[in-house]
């Protein structure tokens, strides 16, 4: 049976390599040095703004996209910067600028926040995604596309 070139779309499993870079060329993440990863369209593995760019691509195709913050990690939001009393941290916890500290969220999961200010009384933590407000260069190569198995 001949494999037809199925384009990326709803109801497909996609095998790809990708990289994410900032506009200055600094690489944020890449799997080009390894085998492809796969995901099912709509399973939440990729942000919708990235996933939608893949629609219509076929195996063997490689493209470079520039993704605006609104379609990537969003714009930084002021309400995501929180000030926490220093007393909420253990006394022996060393807190420094730029440290990413893991907090428990309401659902019991982990929520990382970057310390952007610290003094004897308060710690200011930025819970925005580190890539919020940034344009992202999304380099993607499609290896295989197949109908997704429905369970």
List the helices and strands and how they pair.
Blueprint: E1 12-22, E2 27-30, E3 37-40, H1 48-54, E4 62-67, E5 81-85, E6 100-104, E7 110-118, E8 122-126, E9 136-147
Antiparallel strand pairs: 1-2, 1-3, 1-9, 4-9, 5-8, 6-7, 7-8
Features:
Chitinase A, domain 3; mainly beta; 151 residues; 1 helix; single chain
Description of the molecule:
The strands form 2 sheets. Strands 1, 2, 3, 4 and 9 form a 5-stranded antiparallel beta sheet that branches. By secondary structure, the protein is mainly β. It has 1 helix and 9 strands. The mean pLDDT is 92. The two termini are 24 Å apart. The protein folds into 2 domains: 12-73 and 133-147, Chitinase A, domain 3 (Roll), CATH 3.10.50; 78-126, Thrombin, subunit H, CATH 2.40.10. The radius of gyration is 20 Å and the shape is elongated.
What is the count of β-strands? Answer: 9
Shape by Cα distribution: elongated
Which architecture of the largest domain would the CATH scheme give at its second level? Roll
Number of helices: 1
What is the N-to-C order of secondary-structure elements (H for helix, E for strand)?
EEEHEEEEEE
Q: Low-confidence runs (pLDDT<50, min 5 residues)?
A: none
Largest sheet: 5 strands, antiparallel
Helix content: under 10%
Q: What is the strand content? A: 35-45%
Return Rg in Å.
20 Å
Classify the secondary structure makeup into a structural class: mainly beta
* CATH class value of the largest domain: Alpha Beta
Q: What is the CATH topology of the largest domain?
A: Chitinase A, domain 3
Cα end-to-end separation: 24 Å
How many domains is the backbone divided into?
2
Query: If you average the pLDDT, what whole number results?
Result: 92
């Amino acid at each position: 049976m001949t494999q037809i070139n199925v384009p990326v779309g709803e109801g497909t499993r996609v095998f790809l390599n990708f990289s994410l870079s900032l506009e200055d060329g600094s690489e944020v993440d890449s799997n080009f040095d390894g085998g492809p990863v796969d995901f099912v369209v709509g399973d939440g593995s990729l942000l919708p703004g990235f996933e939608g760019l893949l629609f219509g691509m076929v195996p063997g195709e490689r493209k470079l996209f520039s993704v605006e913050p609104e379609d990537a990690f969003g714009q930084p939001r002021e309400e995501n910067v929180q000030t926490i009393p220093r007393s909420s941290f253990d006394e022996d916890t060393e807190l420094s600028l730029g440290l990413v500290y893991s907090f428990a969220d309401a659902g019991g999961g982990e929520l990382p926040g970057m310390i952007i200010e610290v003094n004897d009384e308060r710690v200011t933590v930025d819970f925005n995604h580190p890539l919020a407000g940034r344009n992202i260069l999304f380099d993607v190569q499609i290896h295989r596309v197949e109908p997704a198995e429905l369970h």
